[in-house]
Amino acid sequence: MPNPAIDPILKINREFQERATRERAQKLGFEYVDIADFPINLDVLRIVSQDEARRAELFPFERVAKTLRVAIVDPERAATKALFDSLKKRYDLEIYLCSKPGFERAMKNYEVSVLQKKTVSARETVTDTPEKLDVNLQHFSSLESKLPDMPAKAALAEIEMESIGAGASDIHFQPTENGVTLRLRVDGVLHNVLTLSDEVAEKIITRIKYESGMRSNISDAPQDGHITVRAGDRFVDLRVSTIPTATLESVVLRILDSRRGIRTFSELGFAPHIQRKILKSLHQQNGIILVTGPTGSGKTTTLYSMLAELNTPERKLVTLEDPIEYHLPGVSQSQVNDAREYNFETGFKSLLRHDPDVILVGEIRTIATARLAFEAALTGHTVLSSLHTNSAIGAISRLRNMGMENYNIAPTVNAVFAQKLVRRVCPICHKTEPLFAARQRVPILAESLDRIASILPDQALPETISVAAGCDQCSGTGYQGLTAVCEALFVTDEVREMILRGDSPLKIREYVRANSDFLSLWEDGVTKILDGVTTVDELQRVAGEEGK
User: 476, 470 in Cβ contact below 8 A?
Assistant: First the structure.
């Protein structure tokens, strides 16, 4: 085929087509790009597959942080509009018009993309059912010897896909004196999967920083970033964080997998008495509902389930998140962007101008955000948010320490739910021990059983409870999956008066335990033990008998 850059006639025709496209772009109000001559970074092609690009006649040609520049042939094409809607969920789109011949020439970049060849097969192996951990450990074991000879982008893609396939929530690159250990957090527990040499780890970490929009030349200061990868037929977001250490940087990738979706309170593991309190608090006219717990305790997942419960046609729901973890139909979701000075404070002020009924703020981190949230609740809005505290009543101390006044806290907070995640005992291999033996082994268990019997008279007391064992099905851990344990503080008028007087959290806790059906996080976990869901050892590992 003659080259338009050499053949005079083809060159004239091409110039005519590009000029006509430029004029058409002006009429339609789009920017114009001569995409055939634009230098393309092949990494950008990861965002849109070759089939999607061909079907929509849309070509991604440049990405800067969260901004994605795409060239299109026909803005009215149905497939183009559909792909717009998908991409807008993850990027700020800048749309350019290009000629059809220019588009065809640009598409040849897919044919030379090494990344396309290296990663598609791995992505297609990711299923909706995580593989057993020991199977993935075998994969990593075979991968360990191959990584030194692989390009950094292919090595990273393999690690990402194997980790997603294992159902991991986090990927850790942890420097040690003997190299860098790659660790996966599965069901809340970290597992060492392989060791990388400093040289191999450094090239993969450099690749991570590049793909997540970090500055590759900075290794002596913390950085945060974000990567979107395609896993099979879905997109998975990775939240990236680095910190400097004595040798290389330590890197953690938090996996935010939309496959997990929105679940009901029952599916999350909340006991019926907790569910009743959640629903009662959600259907009050206004006020703040807080979900508390450490990082990785499922706070965001619970907030999304609360939002789904309130998502009805007669309500306007808006969110301010960092990042958006799940996309909810019928909800206006906004992601903070510190680089553009769009943070929780500035974003909250903007949200209030959109006439919302329900506002979800991912986390109350500063006094400025707290004041805005409380003002919104006092003016008739329902506000959902999270705090980092280990107990429900501890949220009151946290708000006071941030600078919130008692006269603002007392009338505004409707309920606080403190939660953690415990592993479910494996249903295949679990063993049992007599309940009386467990009471002798863990003395606090007896006191907890007495409290539970007085609050939940219908709670069964079995003769035996589960003990973890280990089998092929659970990869020898004795556990499969996670469930929530929770303590719920429903703020009554009496509790509001105590907050207003400045009573201590200890005094408030004593009152609540003496005058309501309050169960501590530990005691709620004991009900999970009695129901055969988890074990005493697992609850001790997670809750440490706190709040007993």
Answer: yes
